């Protein structure tokens, strides 16, 4: 599908397992940081806390993810990173991340870490079977969703919004956000 770039093995199976276990360990503490403000998931979702915690600031997840993201973008960028956990019956409705196309300035992303890969992620209504450790970068204009999880296995993913080639001016603008800690500037 146009507007999506996929990176198989962005994370190894071992790294995916470490990160998914860490996400589950942190889940309740992150939920206590503020209200769920996203209405396209179950109530009290981790996804709905995307605004209050950046998983790249975690002492386990950051050292795994940041060097890989640096290598991928190869120039300064700002990233927001959150996690999604979907238990039986939970998924995420059709949504997009921004009005910005995938280009030299912006990318949205999804990394599948754990769960039944055959549930898939739907991009513009087309099913993509997930692979552990795969990163999908996409235009902010692309609608995507995940159907309700029919299994007892928890589905864990990470999502990112990346502002590529960002400078100090952009960081200052994003710092005016209500929770400036949701963004990490990576040189």
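-> sequence recovered:
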């Amino acid at each position: 599908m146009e507007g999506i770039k996929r990176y198989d093995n962005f994370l190894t199976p071992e790294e995916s397992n470490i990160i998914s276990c860490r996400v589950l360990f942190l889940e309740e503490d992150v939920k206590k940081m503020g209200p769920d403000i996203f209405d396209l998931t179950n109530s009290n979702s981790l996804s709905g806390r995307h605004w209050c915690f950046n998983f790249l600031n975690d002492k386990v997840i950051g050292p795994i993810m940041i060097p890989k993201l640096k290598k991928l973008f190869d120039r300064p960028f700002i990233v927001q990173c959150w996690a999604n956990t979907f238990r039986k019956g939970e998924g995420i409705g059709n949504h997009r991340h921004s009005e910005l196309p995938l280009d030299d300035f912006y990318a949205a992303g999804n990394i599948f870490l754990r769960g039944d890969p055959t549930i898939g992620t739907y991009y513009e209504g087309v099913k993509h079977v997930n692979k552990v450790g795969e990163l999908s970068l996409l235009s902010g204009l692309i609608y995507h969703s995940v159907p309700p999880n029919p299994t007892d296995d928890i589905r864990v993913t990470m999502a990112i919004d990346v502002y590529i080639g960002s400078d100090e001016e952009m960081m200052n603008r994003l710092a005016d956000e209500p929770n400036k800690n949701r963004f990490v500037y990576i040189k």
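The longest strand covers residues 77-86.
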